[in-house]
Amino acid sequence: MKLIVGMEVHVELNTARKMFCSCDARAFGEKPNTHVCPVCLGMPGALPVPNREAILWTARIALALNCSINENNYFERKHYFYPDLPKGYQISQYKHPIGFEGYLDVPYKGKTERITIERVHLEEDTGKLSYATDKNGARIGKIDFNRSGVPLVEIVTHPVIHDPELAAAYLKQLRMTIFHLGVSDVDMEKGSMRCEPNISVRTSGQSKLPAYKVEIKNINSFRFVKKAIEYEYTRQQHMLEKGKTPTQETRRYVESTSSTEPMRQKEEARDYRYMPEPDIPPIRLTKTDIKQQQDTLDNTDTLDKKISLFVQLGASMQHAEFLTKHSDKAALVTDTIALFMHETIDRMLFQKQVISAVINLASAAGTTPQQVYEAAIAKLTPKQFDIDLLHTHIDAVLSQQAKAVQDYKAGNQSALNVLMGAVMRITKGQADANEVRQALIKKLSS
Amino acid sequence: MKYTIDSLHQAYDEKQVSVSEVVSSYTKRIAQLNPTLNAYLTVDEEAIAEQVSKLPKYDKHRFPLWGVPISVKDNYCTKGMHTTAASNVLKDFVPQYDATVIRKLREAGAIILGKTNMDAWAHGSSTETSDFGPTKNPHDITRMPGGSSGGAAVSVAADLCVAAVGTETAGSIRQPASWCGVIGLKPTYGRVSRYGVIAMASSTDSPGPITKTVADARSILRVIAGHDPLDATSLPDRLADTSETKKTITIGWSSTYLDGVSPDVKHGFEKTLQALEQKGHHIQEISLMSPQLSIAVYTVIQRAEVSSNLARFDGIRYGNPRSLFGSEAKKRIMLGTFVLSVGYFDAYYLKAQKVRTLIINDFKRAFKTVDAILAPTAPTTALKLGESAKYPFFGEIMDVLVEPSSIAGLPGISFPIGKDDHNLPIGMQLLAPWKEEQRLLRLTAEFNPEVEQVL
To answer: Does B5-242+416-424 carry CATH code 2.60.40.10?
Structure first.
């Protein structure tokens, strides 16, 4: 039985303005419903005016994925009811995506796998729905429209992936490719990159695609993509072995159990009643427009671009310049950042640590992104310090620093910092600072 | 009273009246007549007083509508003032923003008196589908005013304002103007911004003026026309200052526009044609596609767009459930949903768009030989109240003569040319090529059409 996976990826563009209005699109983490206007709230009478920059950037992504570009583009309305969709339809593209029939070459197990791309199209993001409980214990839904109308690019592969690990490798390569274009943060934690694998299993002897597919949502790391596909592969195989056909449906990935559960059933394809968006005239991408995007793509390696890329990642100007002159180290930095992220550590802190770890290497030769990642994480995660040893060190410091102890007991709070500094020096910074502080206070007050 | 923009400005020039006096005489007249006519849904005295107090110093050149009391159809969003589209679904809706037309009117010094009645969501040609009761025709209050801008046309005919702004998707300015004996200009699609107008059929919606004189229609058009960065479909061109200088032009007419037209209206048409000839214009018979054909095209496209545009009223926002949609809106949503469904889209919507192109080409061909086209605005004069419920496609039947030009996005103007045996106004329309509103205004001005003040 053969696994068949097609990948749908959504990427939020980081244009200054939203897709169809002039609201500030960079609203992640801002107070809910502060980046909104009649247009992105879908108020009666409001009209969309397309953001040309987003259209050109979509073409740039499509070109980077070796797609053909449609010169005549128009938007369509995709109708469905959902609380986070204020107009009752999403402005999207259906019949004629901006980019079509491309590919991405993915380095995989020492070889290159070519993943063919079906389409790259542009649409608007929806609002964000969350649930809470009010003071009477009733469940309430909350909608934040800051994200509503942010330009969103959808990249769809053909169903050509047959291996869960290759699916993850494709996503990593795609993330790296888009990241280098400077058009998106492609950050899975922030939701500016979202991956939805469509999975089915073909029984041996079958030559056509299976009559069903299962879409998985709610996956926020590459590792989980791989796990979700593995789980689905097993689940669907078991069903097929018993002679049953899996239901066409959307399922949700559950991290705690590494499994999937039904989200909503799709008995038949949903009828979105696509129609050309009458509020937006057709948009022409001229040969000159396309060439400009191609040129931008070809020049992504220019010095200025490179420097600003590293500065954006958190490098000092000095380090950024250093990296532009040391391409092997630069590649190690970008590869590590593109390939890895850590669920619990601030992205910027992590990036800074990666940069400093790579710069401090004698040579990039022989070091893998995995090693850099581990080194960076090690620096950022407090070590478990042997508790008995810590207390021994604290006792030693307290007996050596009699004056500081006296000062602290007399009410001088800053004396505590002197004592803490001494303990941290002895432990070479590997003890948890908070733990040290608590232990010191306890000992000093006894 | 019966002010026009020009006569009112003259009165201001000569300090005969103050703006407060003018405004209060209008609000008094509204208080007196609106209970009978139901032309206005909202008259906000507080908002009127605030507008008057905020008027800049009188300067009719800088502010071409300074101190001019204007009525606004209730599908224009007005900041802080109820905007219902005459539907219970929006009965509690107070917009946070002004439509571009409203902003321009305010900036030109106009005083917005209130919001006028209409067919709910602009679905109809009678103003009988309003959830807040029908508007009555002031020429005979047992008759309907036409629609959907029925309240707007009545507010002008009964002198409950100096001028009005309405909207037309296919006939909603011209047809009620015709039935109420006033002047209604439907500009070229895209000439006036749709931003802030509650959408009916996005690809044909055209805001425009309803007035007592041709000069007033021109004054208002000058204020509200122009490219709007908030409406991607608005025309980039500026409105020409005046029409071309050619004194006499060729006017075409097509017998296909006289099929099913009542004898009175037909007679009025012939008289108008003669009058044009006497003024030295060249008259030429042309052959236009039967307007009957455009009913199907218009119905399919409009219902599709309606079903989509009304999707945002999902019962989550605006405080009222979808069950408050009236039966006309429900019928349109269902038909529109059907024609957009998978498997039917190509057969209906796509085909309708193809025929639309044929209609556009038919006009393009005609305008190679003629400069303007004359036709009756509506097949009959105003019908009795209650008639609209008898016909499932009442609007389409009454709008048959304006639908082809609406579908093609052409400008058109309706003006009164006399009365029928029941003493009801008869309206004629002139059509021109895209962007030639000035030609229509100049030609209509030659008739110096008289708007009779009634009541």
So the answer is: no
CB distance from A129 to chain B under 8 Å? Answer: no
Rounded distance, CA A184 to CA A175, Å? 9
In a domain, A291, yes or no: no
Structure confidence by residue, pLDDT tens digits, B171-194? 999 999 999 999 999 999 999 999
Q: What pLDDT does residue A384 have?
A: 65
Q: Vertex B431, ends B108 and B167: CA angle to 5°?
A: 45
Domain assignment present for residue A286? The answer is no
* pLDDT tens-digit map of B240-288: 877 666 778 999 999 999 998 999 999 999 999 999 999 999 999 999 9
Domain ranges in chain B are: 5-242+416-424
Res A181 pLDDT > 90:
no
Q: Rounded to an integer, what distance in angstroms lies between the CA atom of residue A298 and that of residue B45?
A: 64
Whether residue B198 and residue A44 make contact (CB cut-off 8 A), yes or no, is: yes
**DSSP letter assigned to residue B78:** B
Same domain? A108 vs A6 = yes
What is the number of CB-based contacts under 8 A between chain A and chain B?
95
Q: State both tokens at A100.
A: 């079509």
Catalytic residue from among B60, B71, B73, B206? B73
A122 shares a domain with A11: yes
B327 is annotated as an active-site residue: no
Which residue among B148, B388, B405, B406 is the active-site one?
A: B148
Among A356, A380, A404, residue at a domain's last position: A380
CA distance B362 to B353: 14
List all residues 6 or more positions away from A20 whose beta carbon is below 8 Å from its beta carbon.
A39, A40, A48, A49, A50, A51, A91, A124, A149
- Quote the ipTM score: 0.95
My answer on whether A24 and A130 are in the same domain is yes
Give yes or no: B57 in active site. no
**Cα gap A373→A4, rounded to integer Å:** 31
Sorted by sequence, the CB contacts under 8 Å of residue B132 that are 6+ apart come out as B38, B41, B84, B86, B117
For chain A, the domain total comes to 3
Q: How confident is the model at residue B93 (pLDDT cuts 50, 70, 90)?
A: very high
3-state secondary structure string across A284-338: ECCHHHHHHHHHHHHCCCCHHHHHHHHHHHCCCHHHHHHHHHCHHHHHHHHHHHH
The one-letter amino acid at A52: R
| C-alpha–C-alpha distance, residues A334 and A340, integer Å | 10
- Report helix, strand or coil for B355: helix
| Kind plus residue range of the DSSP H or E element containing A222 | helix A222-241
What pTM does this model have?
0.85
